[in-house]
Specification:
10 helices, five-stranded antiparallel beta sheet, alpha+beta
Amino acid sequence: MDFNVKKLASDAGVFFTRAVQYTEEKLGQAEKTELDAHLENLIARGDCTKNWTEKIFRQTEVLLQPNPSARIEEFFYEKLDRKIPSRTTNAELLGQYMQDAAKEFGPGTPYGCTLITVGEFQRRLGGAEREFLQMSAINFLTPLRNFLEGDWKTISKERRLLENRRLDLDVCKARLKKAKLAEAKAAAEHELRVAQTEFDRQAEVTRLLLEGISSTHVNHLRCLHEFVEAQAAYYAQCHKHMQDLQKELSRCGLQFPNAFAVNASTSGVSAGPSPLSTATLPEVSPPSRPPNPSNALESSTLKIEEVKPPATGTRKAKVLYDYDAADTSELSLLADELITVYTVPGMDPDWLVGERGNQKGKVPVTYLELLS
């Protein structure tokens, strides 16, 4: 083992003088060579880029993989330079459970048949999610990680070396000021010239590396566009799968009782259509006007002007679509307005009594979103 005592002692001496210079600068007892404004701006820009890139990288990891244990596992696989094992997505797992349950319940039953259909589409959603995660990891996360673990480490190393050269330069300036003999001054001036040359050279190297941050921004901009494209394609696939699933379920022809009517006997009100199926899907047209009730009991005994709201069971509802009353017993509606609704015994389950101020009339359930 080549152990150079002189070099070790020399390095220790340099470290000590740098530490003394740094401490005196912090205490205001020594002068400090300031970097030029352009280099200072580049350093500040580089620090800003590193900090925000790190935050974006970490949060994107959380978005793509919310499970912290899975993220830690992937981190170790990357450090060991081993391939990350394929992991089943939650949607794929749900789809598998649904299809396994259908086998137990009987695939020929309405419930079992629907479980098979929904399970298949859940697996398709999981496949789309898997593809999105892979594309995002390759096109977005990897370039950010390469910058943080590659380019930025190189920049940080050169910046530390620049700081050491600056400390050496200031130590030489201090020695020159303290030198009194001509011989000592000459030696100090020579050391100062060497230190200044090394400092200038290192400042130039650091400047060139920091100016490369602009290229990094351009590269990350391209990666960001690719990430957005991957997200858009993923959500479009999900939307198409869900539309296909709704069409598939509608072809089954199963009719379910109105949830509002089922609960009317216990709560005094009924529930309108889910906001997901009406209000939030794009380009959803208003439902068809429900037929006027032909129930003999209702037509003979129910008179809107005589209907009184129950003591309990009234609810607020948001109007989803404009509705024009067909006759005087109905109440015209405007989209997004709030009204009070309730049901009365003998009333058709597709209709409610709606009140808006002093106005009262029947309103179709499918045009409402119940709020409370």
